[in-house]
Amino acid sequence: MAITKEIELSNGVILNYHRVVSVNNITNHASIIEVASYTNKLKRQEEKNAIENNENMDVLIESEYINIPYDEDLNVISAYNYLKNTEKYKNGLDC
After folding, report:
1. pTM
2. Quick one: pLDDT at residue 95?
3. 80-85: which pairs have CB atoms within 8 A and are 24 or more residues apart?
């Protein structure tokens, strides 16, 4: 599962593929969504293959940690739904 949407960084790099890496709930305090963004889906696949085969890779990964109010029911699916309702990922497509 991922979101595809073109997002340009301040340095001009364009990211098109965004996935939730982790969801962390700090009980009664906060929820944190970790998002990894890639230039495209092929680079994500390159990362997966390199990890599986213990090989080097040349993949740009932009990580972001999004703090939201505590949600005891937050999971990967609800994290994607949350992201798609933010300005940054609004109108992104499921992939």
Report:
1. 0.91
2. 87
3. 80/1, 80/3, 80/20, 82/33, 83/3, 83/18, 83/20, 83/33, 83/35, 84/3
